[in-house]
Amino acid sequence: MPGEHLEQREDGVDVSVVVPLFNEAESLPELHRRIAEALDGAGASFEVIFVDDGSRDGSFETIRRLRENDGRITAVRFRRNYGKSAALAVGFEASRGDIVVTMDGDLQDDPAEVPRMVELLGQGYDLVSGWKKDRKDALSKRLPSKLFNLVTGIVCGLRLHDFNCGLKAYRREVVENIPVYGELHRYLPVLAHWAGFRVTETPVLHHPRKHGSSKFGMGRFTHGFFDLLTVYFVSNYTRRPLHLFGSFGMLSFVTGLGIALYLTWLWLSGVGIGTRPLLLFSVLLMVLGIQLVSMGLIAEMIAHQARRTEDYAVQERLG
Q1: Distance CA 319, CA 300 (A)
Q2: How many C-beta atoms surround the C-beta of residue 56 within 10 A?
Q3: What are phi and psi of 190, to 5 degrees?
Q4: Which residue of 4, 158, 208, 312 has the fewest C-beta atoms within 10 A of its own C-beta?
Q5: What letter would DSSP give residue 109?
Q6: What's the rounded Cα separation, in Å, for the pair 25 and 106?
Q7: Is 289 helix (H, G, I), strand (E, B) or coil?
Q8: How far apart are CA 50 and CA 105, in angstroms?
């Protein structure tokens, strides 16, 4: 049974459900009710952490009223909109459960899937990502998403059908060791995979949006491309940036040097080279190579000294 891996604990919380939200006041009462039904039915002790990412529709007041009737609700309210990654980072920090589940606040993710996802964690996985196999969104969202998932899988070496599904279940070790900042929430399975955690996915129910409209535009796919480059760099070269900059720098310098030696041989053979564009090109390549290696050395020093910290202006907390 799905509830077998959700044995009641006397000393804490089994499952922390983190819900980042932005202007979802109409959805929250039903979402809370369905989360409680799913986890109470599984016999789990749980908490629900709502992270209000600067809503202006009264979402936090709705959460406040829900908390009056259920002390298992806690909440964090940002003064302005920081984005989903910031909301998840703060939610992870506030969570207490051995298992952390994330879902969106728009009722498209189904809380009834949570016990089954937790059961998969009990089979030895560290992160279970949902797969909206029968996605209830417009074609204009589904097609770019398929392309995004395909490219991400090829670049990152982790083949999932749906990297960006908001419904995920994590062991506590994952959220404690994987940094979430910028807009890297899309790539949490990739970051976990590269850190050595076992990642899998499972089909989950996906519902049409009941209230409001999507808060994400087409710009998220452009942002996603740049975030993919960021993930690839920080996961492979953060501790050795010279390997990246130095490789391109040495390639540029050696190519320029080779051209310069060729032109020198021509000059020694009596051929004029002063007006050849190839001469300027060789000098440019060598200078560029030296600059790239220098950038790599500077990045090495920064990486050695820097420690990433990022603060968010929290307006209010409940619980």
Answers
A1: 42
A2: 11
A3: -65, -45
A4: 208
A5: B
A6: 9
A7: helix
A8: 9
Q: In which residue are the tokens 């190839």 written?
A: 278
Q: Do the beta carbons of residue 231 and residue 163 sit within 8 Å?
A: no
CA separation for the pair 98, 115 (Å, rounded): 14
Buried b (16+ CB within 10 A) or exposed e, 75-98: bbbbeebbbbbbbbbbbbebbebb
For tokens 């996802």, the residue is 117
Q: What's the pLDDT tens digit per position in 266-315? A: 888 888 887 888 989 999 999 999 998 898 888 767 765 654 545 556 77
Q: How far apart are CA 58 and CA 64, in angstroms?
A: 10
Both structure tokens of 312? 């968010």
d(CA 66, CA 120): 30
Q: What global pTM score does this model have?
A: 0.72
Quick one: which H or E segment has residue 314? strand 314-318
CB 147 within 8 A of CB 164: no
The average pLDDT across 158-170 equals: 91
**203 pairs with which residues across the strands?**
131
Question: Tokens 């369905």 — which residue?
Answer: 34
- DSSP string of 167-221? -EEEEHHHHHHS---TTGGGGHHHHHHHTT--EEEEE--B----SS--S--THHH
Give the C-alpha separation, 43 to 103, whole Å: 20
Instruction: Compute the distance between CA of residue 61 and CA of residue 56 in angstroms, rounded to an integer.
Output: 10
**The tokens of 302 are what?**
């920064």
Confidence tier at 186 by pLDDT (50, 70, 90): confident
- Antiparallel, parallel or unpaired: β 73-78 and 314-318: antiparallel
Please tell me the distance from the alpha carbon of residue 265 to that of residue 242, in angstroms, as a whole number. 33
Q: Which residues contact 76 (CB under 8 A, 6 or more apart)?
A: 49, 50, 51, 52, 90, 91, 94, 314, 316, 317
